[in-house]
Amino acid sequence: GSIGKRYRRQDEIGTPYCVTIDFETLKDKAVTVRDRDTMEQERIKIEKLKDYLGDKLNN
Q1: Per-residue confidence (pLDDT) for residue 58, from 0 to 100
Q2: Helix/strand/coil (H/E/C) assignment for every residue in the chain
Q3: Domain spanning 3-58: which superfamily?
Q4: Which residues of 26-42 are buried (b: 16+ CB within 10 A; e: fewer)?
Q5: pLDDT, tens digit, for every residue of 5-56?
Q6: Per-domain boundaries in the chain
Q7: Is 1's pLDDT higher than 90?
Q8: Whole-model pTM above 0.90?
Q9: CA 11 – CA 3 distance, rounded (Å)
Q10: Closest CA to 15 of 1, 32, 33, 30
Q11: What is the CA radius of gyration of the chain?
């Protein structure tokens, strides 16, 4: 399915953040993180992902 359908499915069940691994991840070692509430998407380096999500989920 398309990424839009996957995001909508996760929105419906209440997933606050979706992490997408794509072809660019292999090149830049980053993933796309999508915020359910704002629908903003941000590229985050894999090495910083744990701290990034930890900060978001603890606020």
Answers
A1: 92
A2: CCHHHHHHHHHHHCCCEEEECCHHHHHHCEEEEEECCCCCEEEEEHHHHHHHHHHHHHC
A3: Anticodon-binding domain (3.40.50.800)
A4: eeeebbbbbeeeeeeee
A5: 988 898 899 899 999 999 999 999 999 999 999 999 999 999 999 999 999 9
A6: 3-58
A7: no
A8: no
A9: 12
A10: 33
A11: 12
Amino acid at 11: D
Q: What is the C-alpha separation between 59 and 17, in angstroms, rounded?
A: 13
Residue 3: its pLDDT value, please?
A: 86
Cβ neighbours of residue 45 under 8 Å, at least 6 residues apart?
28, 29, 30
Q: What is the total residue count of the chain?
A: 59
